[in-house]
Write a structure and sequence with these properties.
alpha+beta, Rossmann fold, 2 domains, five-stranded mixed beta barrel
Length: 315
C-alpha cells in the first residue's frame, strides 16, 4: 500500500514533467527521458527540482544527515538533497553532462528516497513469466542485466532493471513495481546479445573505461503496473549449474545483503521497517540460490534452465 507523505513545502516549478516509476508519480523540473511519461497528477508522490542544497556537515563524498534530510555528495557530479521520501533537490556541478546527473539522481538519490518511504528496493532485475514476476538479484557484475536481456529478447516483459521495488498488497502478497524501462549492459554482454555499441548511449559520460550502455525498453515490452512476485533468485558463481531454496534467516540475510543502497537504511533510521519487509518477503515468496558459471557462451543453456524452473513454480 502506498504511504502518503506530505511535501515539506509547496514549490512552483519553472517547468515540469510527469513520470511513473517504482509505483510512484514523479514530477520533475529536469527532463528524465529514461522514464515513461505519465498524465499530470493533482498531487505527485515525489517532486524533483534544481536548487541550492544544504552544505555538508563534514567534508567527504557520500551521504550526510543534515537539514532534516539526507545530503548525497557525488564527486565530479553534484549534490542531491533527499527529504521526507517526497522531494529531491539537485545541485549539479557546473559543466557536468545531464546524463551523469540523471545517472545518480535515478540511482543512489532515488534509492535513498525509497528507503525514506519505508519501501524495499532490491538490487535486482525482474521479468514477467506467465503473468508473474521473477527477480534476479546479486552484486554488480553477477549478470542480472544479461539475464534480463535474454528474457526480453524472447518476448518476456521487463519489470525492472538493477532496482526492483517490492511492496505488499492488502492480502500480504509481494508485488514488484515497474522500474526504469531500460537495460544497462556491459559492452561484452551487449555485443553477445547481438547489439552494436554504436546504437546505444553510454550510461556514464567522460570515462572511456566505463563501457556500460543503456538499452531502452519499448513501452509495449515493459511492465507498467505492479506484478505479483513468484520467486527471487540470488545469482552466485559456481562450477556447475545448481538451484537450491533458501529458508528462514539465510533467505532474509540474502535479501538484506542484496538491498539496493542498503547502507542508507541505518542512515534514514529504517532498520526495523527493512527487517520486517525482508521477513515478510521470506514468508510469502520462495527465494533460491543459483550457482552458475559466468560464461556468456553458456547463457542460452542457463537461462533456459531458469525459465524451466520458473515455469515449474507456476505449475
Amino acid at each position: 500500500m502506498r504511504r502518503e507523505i506530505p511535501l515539506s513545502a509547496p514549490r512552483i516549478m519553472t517547468a515540469s514533467h510527469d513520470y511513473s516509476v517504482f509505483g510512484l508519480h514523479v514530477r520533475s523540473e529536469l527532463p528524465l527521458p529514461e522514464l515513461f511519461e505519465a498524465e499530470p497528477a493533482l498531487r505527485p508522490d515525489v517532486l524533483i527540482h534544481l536548487g541550492k542544497v544544504p552544505d555538508p556537515p563534514a567534508s567527504g563524498m557520500g551521504p550526510h544527515v543534515t537539514g532534516g534530510g539526507l545530503l548525497l555528495v557525488i564527486e565530479d557530479v553534484g549534490r542531491y538533497f533527499i527529504r521526507d521520501g517526497a522531494e529531491i533537490v539537485v545541485e549539479p556541478q557546473s559543466g557536468v553532462p545531464d546524463t551523469n546527473v540523471r545517472l545518480f539522481l535515478l540511482g543512489s538519490a532515488m534509492g535513498a528516497l525509497l528507503h525514506q518511504r519505508g519501501l524495499l528496493p532490491l538490487h535486482s532485475n525482474a521479468v514477467e513469466i506467465g503473468g508473474k514476476a521473477f527477480a534476479f538479484m546479486g552484486r554488480s557484475g553477477a549478470g542480472k542485466s544479461t539475464l534480463a536481456a535474454w528474457f526480453h529478447d524472447r518476448g518476456h516483459a521487463i519489470i525492472a532493471d538493477d532496482v526492483c521495488v517490492i511492496r505488499f498488497d492488502q492480502l500480504g502478497r509481494a508485488i514488484a513495481s515497474a522500474g526504469l524501462p531500460r537495460l544497462r549492459l556491459w559492452k561484452e554482454s551487449l555485443e553477445a546479445s547481438g547489439r552494436e555499441t554504436a546504437s546505444f548511449p553510454r550510461s556514464y559520460t567522460g570515462d572511456p573505461a566505463f563501457e556500460k550502455y543503456d538499452v531502452p525498453i519499448a513501452r509495449a515490452a515493459a511492465a507498467t503496473d505492479g506484478t505479483e512476485l513468484a520467486a527471487v533468485y540470488v545469482l552466485e558463481r559456481g562450477d556447475d549449474f545448481n538451484i537450491a531454496r533458501l529458508e528462514g534467516v539465510g533467505a532474509a540475510d540474502a535479501l538484506m545483503a542484496n538491498t539496493y543502497r542498503g547502507g542508507f537504511v541505518a542512515t534514514v533510521k529504517g532498520e526495523l521497517a527493512h527487517w520486517h519487509a525482508c521477513m515478510q518477503l521470506v514468508r510469502t515468496t520462495p527465494i533460491f540460490r543459483v550457482e552458475r558459471r559466468w560464461e556468456l557462451d553458456e547463457i542460452d543453456e542457463q537461462c533456459g534452465l531458469l525459465l524451466d524452473h520458473g515455469l515449474g513454480i507456476l505449475g
